[in-house]
Please model this.
Amino acid sequence: PYSLCNYTRLSIFWLAGGSIESFDAKIFQPVKNLSSLFINNNQLRYLDSSMFAYLNRNKLRELSFWSNKIESIETNTFDLLINLEYLNLAQNRLKFLNDYLFNKLGNLKYFTLNQNALVSFNFNSLNCMNELSYFNLCNNQIDTFTDDFQCDNLTYIRKKFLNQTLSRMEC
Model:
């Protein structure tokens, strides 16, 4: 199997425009300085925590799975990525997200979920994101959100991009 053993100083890994449906996380084991991982425009259908098992999770700051075919994300997938600042999940096939999926991402500054098929979103899942300054939820199919929605943390968001239904909300 292919390994990145000769690229131990690699800090940015970009793999785009392919037909990757899955990958063996062990390829990242020798890469100790990876701060940015972009696996965009591929064929991934799910994400789970094992995909990040061999990364130096303290170094990883940027993660992008833009334009794949992701339909599901395991609940604890991002739990150990506590220093993540950028997360792009745009242009996938996500319909539902667990309310606790993002609750460990307190350092997140940039977060995109636009152009998925989300039918609901719990804004309280953003409560831990005190650093969030960009959030994009445009072009989903959202028709419901939690009744106990509080805008407290959204005061940190300088740019909010919501679909037409939610853009009428006032905080």
Q: What stands out?
A: The CA atoms of residues 46 and 72 lie 5 Å apart. Residues 164-167 form the longest helix (4 residues). The two ends are 52 Å apart (CA to CA). The longest strand covers residues 12-16.
